[in-house]
Every structure is written in C-alpha cells, then in structure tokens.
Design a protein that fits this description.
Distance between the termini: 40 Å
Structural class: mainly beta
Helix content: 10-25%
Number of strands: 10
Largest sheet: 10 strands, antiparallel
Strand content: over 45%
Length: about 230
C-alpha cells in the first residue's frame, strides 16, 4: 500500500512538473492569461526581503562608522494602471521592517559605541514599469520612479538624544528607485520576482543638542540605501 501511494505521488509530481514546464518555459508553450494585461487596471500583492544600509559623508577625515546590515521583510499591495502597451504606472504601498547596527570608533564601552537603529517603514513608491515584448509566458521589465518613506521608529519627536541612548532620524524620507524583474504567466496567476535599488535623497540624521557630539557632530549627511527583493502575485 505504501509503495502504491509513493508511486502515485511520484507520478503526479512528474506529470505536474511536465505540464508546468510545457506551459511556462517550453519552446512551444500553452499561452496563459493571454488577455490579462489588456486590462486597464489590476491589483496584486507582494512579499519580499530587504537589506538597508546608510551612506555617510563626513565633515573631516577619520575612522568611519561601521554599519552592520540585517535582512528585513516586506509586505504590501500593488495597483497597476496601463498607460500604453509597454508602459504601466504602479503604486506599491507596503510595510517594511529592518534593523541596522552602528558601531562608532573611539569609544571604550559598548553602550556608547553601539547604536541599534530599528526601523518600521511605511513605503509609498510611484513607479513606471517598462515591459518588453512577451515571449511565450515570460515578459521582462524595467521599473523606476520616486517614493516617500514614513519611519514609524524614527524617534524624531523625542527630546532625548544620544547622551540618553536615543538615536534619532527624520520621520519622512524621499527616494528614487531603479530595478528590473520578470512577469511569469502561470495558468491562474502572474508571478513577478523583482530586484530594486532604493536611494535616499535627503539627509536623515537629527543632530544631538551638542554640536560637538561624538555621535553626530562629524556627520555631514546620512542617507539610506536599500535593496528590495519582492515576489509579486497578480
């Protein structure tokens, strides 16, 4: 009986894999969702990962502040408006969580040398998507645009600063974004994996009350940099 069940499952797996290959990546595929992208407006959602960094410029030359990056996660919605056969306007609001550790030189204690920057972002990107010709069930694309990010963990309204272990950044940040991806048309939905770079435009740092603060005094500007890897489903 166990052998029969195993052979049945193996047969179904091989058959399913063959059908998937035939419909997606074969030389003569079955065209899935052929009229889907003729819609004027359609929606979806995405899940993904992020890696945030800081780009820092200094007033004087000295030891750099070291940034330790971690992998965060993303979740959000997509609204896609067709402007032209190969151009779409996309709005992709989402919730992004990430963490960065800043290690300051020239401190003898960990409490002074380490600043943990935990960030919960609400991200509002407005992007243009430039698609290529569809080949079978695959359609590559480029995308780019502008975004605004609200940092719910910015501490921007706090009166305490680094003397009280409080690292502060501005609540709102404007960015520009560039990336590429691929639409993969299955029988029932479109899967769109993509990778995108995000570049902060303005200085985010809120300085300490002391102009000579060892944590903020030598920083000319501090801007976010990030890489997003998203998996979008339509």
């Amino acid at each position: 009986m166990k052998k029969f069940v195993f052979l049945l499952l193996l047969s179904l797996t091989i058959k399913g894999h063959a059908q998937f290959t035939k419909s997606i990546f074969s030389k003569d595929p079955i065209i899935n969702l052929e009229t889907w992208q003729q819609q004027r407006l359609y929606f979806g959602f995405y899940l993904g990962f992020n890696s945030y960094d800081f780009k820092m410029d200094y007033k004087t030359v000295g030891p750099d502040i070291q940034v330790k990056k971690t992998t965060g996660f993303n979740v959000g919605l997509v609204a896609d408006l067709k402007l032209q056969e190969y151009i779409n306007l996309r709005f992709e609001p989402g919730l992004y969580y990430t963490k960065r550790d800043l290690f300051y030189p020239n401190f003898t204690t960990e409490n002074d040398a380490l600043r943990e920057v935990n960030s919960t972002y609400i991200h509002f990107p407005l992007l243009l998507k430039f698609s290529s010709l569809r080949t079978g069930n695959v359609r590559p694309y480029l995308l780019g645009g502008l975004s605004a990010t609200l940092n719910l963990s910015s501490n921007s309204k706090s009166l305490d600063d680094n003397l009280e272990q409080r690292f502060r950044v501005k609540a709102w940040t404007p960015n520009y974004e560039l990336g590429f991806g691929i639409d993969i048309f299955s029988e029932y939905f479109i899967l769109s994996p993509s990778i995108r770079g995000v570049f902060g435009l303005n200085d985010e740092l809120i300085r300490d009350k002391d102009p000579a603060s060892p944590w903020t005094g030598n920083i000319e500007s501090m801007k976010s940099r990030a890489i997003f890897i998203n998996f979008t489903f339509h």
